[in-house]
Amino acid sequence: MTDRDHEVVLLMGPPGAGKGTQANLLASERGLEQLSTGAMLRAHVQGGTELGKRAKIIMDSGALVSDDIIIDMVRAELDRMRPIRVLLDGFPRTTVQAEALDALLASFGAGIDSAIELVVPESELVRRLLGRAAAEGRSDDNEDTIRTRMRVYLDQTRPLLDYYAVQGKLRSVDGIGTTGEVFDRVVGALGAERA
Ligand code: AP5
Ligand code: MG
Q1: Average pLDDT of 88-115?
Q2: In angstroms, rounded to a whole number, what is the distance separating the alpha carbons of residues 141 and 62?
Q3: What is the pLDDT at residue 195?
Q4: Is 127 labeled as catalytic in the residue annotation?
Q5: What is the distance between the alpha carbons of residues 104 and 106, in angstroms, rounded to a whole number?
Q6: Is the pLDDT confidence value at 131 over 70?
Q7: Which domains does the chain have, with CATH numbers?
Q8: Within 13 Å and on the Cβ side, how many CA atoms surround 13?
Q9: pLDDT (tens digit, 9 = 90+) per residue, 1-14?
Q10: Does residue 168 sit in helix, strand or coil?
Q11: Closest-approaching ligand to the CA atom of 88
Q12: 168 C-alpha vs ligand 1 centroid, how far in Å?
């Protein structure tokens, strides 16, 4: 296995930016496994596990689930992947998570190839999330929780963009437009990496 067999891409951006939507498309396009920490937590909530019960209260408040829990979940997934070919959606979200991810990947001889930031103004984010609330009823898509999720993003996750920018790994992509238009931009931003 060479280093080129591994591929690790991060999809970053605020709540409602389209991380999940783009991750779905990109995972099959590039032969990567999509790992969404939010979806994994929602599966625990759905399954009524102990972790799910604890996580639901935190997720419904808009705060972040503890780093230890999240890092353990991601470690368990990466542990079974060889080579590591993964698209991470919604992780890392704190400096502690970012540093843990680097250490974990290094232990497998892998590293982060690129971090894609989806850029969308807040008014559009709120419009999308309230639209989804009406359509799907995700329990954290209400005005109060959305406000907290936005603040938590700005305080705890947005600083990570600099962490990847200084490493030359950050690609910022305009997240406004149709899903297809945004996807083309994401693929374009990644294409420059590994032609
Ligand atoms: P998570 O599930 O990651 O939610 P989020 O970051 O708030 O983001 P969303 O999933 O709401 O948005 P998205 O960017 O994926 O956009 P999507 O494609 O869905 O996290 C939920 C909670 O779990 C957190 O608050 C936290 O408590 C916990 N958690 C998760 N990860 C954690 C971690 N690492 N550490 C600690 N805690 C963690 O699109 C949104 C909507 O917009 C959809 O309706 C979609 O159809 C629509 N849409 C998408 N693209 C477009 C477009 N181009 N134009 C118009 N509409 C669009
Ligand atoms: Mg999502």
Answers
A1: 97
A2: 9
A3: 43
A4: no
A5: 5
A6: yes
A7: 3-187 (3.40.50.300)
A8: 25
A9: 556 699 999 999 99
A10: coil
A11: 1
A12: 25
CA atoms within 13 A on the CB side of 81: 25
**Amino acid found at 29:** E
Query: What burial class does residue 1 get, using C-beta atoms within 10 Å of its C-beta: 0-12 exposed, 13-18 middle, 19+ buried?
Result: exposed
Could you list the beta-strand ranges (E) of the chain: 7-12, 33-36, 85-89, 114-119, 170-174
Give this prediction's pTM.
0.96
> Which tokens belong to 116?
């894609």
End-to-end CA distance of the chain: 19
Is the pLDDT score of 193 beyond 60?
no
Residue 42 appears among annotated catalytic residues: no
> Which one, of 153, 118, 108, 149, lies nearest residue 132 by Cα?
149
Helix/strand/coil for 81 = coil
- Would the CA dihedral through 20, 100, 95, 112 be positive or negative? negative
75 is catalytic: no
* Strand 85-89, strand 7-12: pairing: parallel
Q: Among 113, 127, 138, which residue's Cα sits nearest to residue 14?
A: 127
2 Cα to the center of ligand 1, angstroms: 33
**Separation of alpha carbons 24 and 73, rounded Å:** 20
